[in-house]
Amino acid sequence: MNRDGLLMGIAAVFMGITALMLIAGIVVSPFFLLVAAPFGGAAYLLWYQASGKLAERIRANPAGYARSARGGGGPGGFDAGPFEGRFTRERTNRQQARGQDRRRRQRARDGGSVAQQSGLSKSAAADILDVDAEADAETVKSAYRERVKTAHPDAPDGDEDEFKSVKAAYETLGE
């Protein structure tokens, strides 16, 4: 079960407890109404987080959730330092660009991509995937997916070396 599903399940349980407490508060004693309030609040907060509405709200106004630069505590408290806007697109784009730069530098150090290291020609790669050497990307992709189903090491008749050659062929034709 994923995290959001688990939170939704817990929220549903809390909502059920809240409903029972409300009924008991009306029928038995008003004390149960006081007990129902925290369960209802917890159910709402869990639902709000699991439904993604909290993340949407933060993405819409990341500055409103940033900690104070003056160290005054601000949202989040405990003076934990500056908040870089975890949900902002700019930060995500920077991280993706850094990852791409890192991969490019790694390829340059290694002398090219995996497909170039394998030394496969386009015709040899096409033979492995059983497609034409000038096939379009969609044809190559579908042929690759079909071959991987049988060649993958986790498949019943899978072979690791065959899987590696299929992967190298796909990378060669994908360039």
List the helices and strands and how they pair.
Blueprint: H1 3-27, H2 31-50, H3 53-60, H4 89-110, H5 114-118, H6 122-129, H7 137-151, H8 160-174
Brief synopsis:
The chain has helices at 3-27, 31-50, 53-60, 89-110, 114-118, 122-129, 137-151, 160-174.
Low-confidence runs: 113-117
Number of distinct helices: 8
Query: How do the SSEs run, as a string of H and E?
Result: HHHHHHHH
Largest sheet geometry? none
Q: Would you count the extended β strands for me?
A: 0
Helix content: 55-70%
Average of the residue pLDDT scores: 77
Task: Give the amount of beta strand, in percent.
Answer: under 5%
Overall number of domains: 2
- Give the N-to-C terminal Cα separation: 38 Å
Assign an overall shape.
Answer: elongated
**Derived structural class:** mainly alpha
Rg from Cα: 27 Å
Please characterize this protein's 3D structure:
By secondary structure, this protein is mostly helical. The chain folds into two domains: 3-89, no CATH class; 114-174, Orthogonal Bundle (Helix Hairpins). The chain has helices spanning 3-27, 31-50, 53-60, 89-110, 114-118, 122-129, 137-151, 160-174. Residues 113-117 have low confidence and may be disordered.
Keywords:
single chain; 175 residues; mainly alpha; Helix Hairpins; 2 domains; 67% helix
